[in-house]
Amino acid sequence: MPLSASSSSDSLAAQPVDRSGGEREEPDLLRRVLAVPGTRVLAVRRDAAPVRDGRLVFVTADAVPDALPGVREWAFLGRAADGAAVVLAVLADDADDSAVADADWVPLRASGGDLPDAEAELLTTAVALAGWVRDAPFCPACGARTELRHAGWSRHCPVCGREHFPRTDPAVIVLVTSAADDDRVLLGANAAWGGDRYSCFAGFAEAGESLEDTVAREVNEEANVRLRRVEYRGSQAWPYPRSLMLGFRAEVVDDAEARADGEEIVEVRWFTRDEIGAAMRGEGATQLPGPASIARRLIDDWYRGVA
Predict the structure, then answer these.
(1) For the segment 219-267, what is each residue's pLDDT rounded down to a tens digit?
(2) Which residues contact 33 (CB under 8 A, 6 or more apart)?
(3) How far apart (Å, rounded) are the C-alpha atoms in residues 73 and 90?
(4) Beta strands 198-199 and 48-52: pairing type?
(5) pLDDT digits (tens, 9 = 90+) for 119-171
């Protein structure tokens, strides 16, 4: 039986969902809220959710979780502005498109930049939590199958007693500007993208490493440049697979040092402001990061002259 689609709520689009973390302590919370007709259910299949007309499509459960086919796990996402509970349904990877009627299944990467801000934030949380719920069923300490607790936000190991929580891995992403010309930025083409898409430089923080050291190391490894004037610009949760992207802008010491590492980054290139503008308009072969990413926001801010 497919889930029946319900209309999206304007209040949800306008205001972020309150995570209402204190409610997670209630052992029977999920069963209770799923029995309430006004509860909104967001179904997620891998990293995709149902979308219609640029909005998330929420669904309603008939009664209790057992009545719904193809749902692997459930989790409590919080409360909408009108007080309604918002629940995550983690569908099986092979769940049919018809699991949610009259909707297109769109990955976060493709839909995040087009959704209202509050819905994009909710979907990011849902995809991140769904990935952990789906992919980490066993205790990493003893290998036993764990039990979900706290309405989907923790796992308890019945054998060794350890509690496990969703992981978030810090990573930096850096927009590099020219030392000689305020109208130039350095972008790199990753080997995994086929050489046509250019983006900021990024990488994970290593054990015992500060974010500032990570910025310097990653950019030097990938583009061979030294940096100065490193400034923090903002962050973005990015559940691919479980990253917290910490955005920076930095200036190179010497433009001439720029050189791709030839392995992860196949080419580095200086772009003028006019060239970035043309790429944003889809003119030419150069592709930029998608609108849902903090990489694109860093580039957009620089292009628009945001200090």
Answers:
(1) 999 999 999 999 999 999 999 989 999 999 999 999 999 999 999 999 9
(2) 39, 76, 85, 87
(3) 5
(4) unpaired
(5) 999 999 999 999 999 999 999 999 999 999 999 999 999 999 999 999 999 99
Q: List Cβ neighbours of 238 (8 Å cut-off, separation of 6 or more).
A: 124, 171, 244, 245, 293, 294
Provide the pairing of β-strand 227-238 with 48-52. Answer: unpaired
Tokens of 256: 């001439």
Smallest Cα–Cα separation from 107: which of 124, 90, 87, 92? 124
Confidence of residue 61 (pLDDT cuts 50, 70, 90): low
The burial class, CB within 10 Å (0-12 / 13-18 / 19+), for 2 is: middle
Residue 262 and residue 200: Cα distance in Å, rounded?
Answer: 16
User: What does the buried/exposed string (b/e) look like for 242-254 if buried means 16 or more CB atoms within 10 Å of the residue's CB?
Assistant: bbbbbbbbbbbee
Which SS3 state, helix, strand or coil, does residue 256 take? Answer: helix
292: Cα separation from own chain's centroid: 8
Residues in the chain: 307
Phi-psi domain of 247 (left: phi exceeds 0; alpha: psi -120 through 50; beta: other): beta
- Give the angle 171-174-177 at the CA atoms, nearest 5°: 170
pLDDT cut 90: percent of the chain above it: 79
C-alpha angle with apex 146: 29 to 47, nearest 5 degrees? Answer: 70
What value does the mean pLDDT of the chain take? 91
207: which DSSP letter?
T
Q: Using an 8 Å Cβ cutoff, are 281 and 109 in contact? A: no
Helix (H) or strand (E) holding 288: none
Q: Give the distance between the most distant pair of CA atoms in the chain.
A: 65
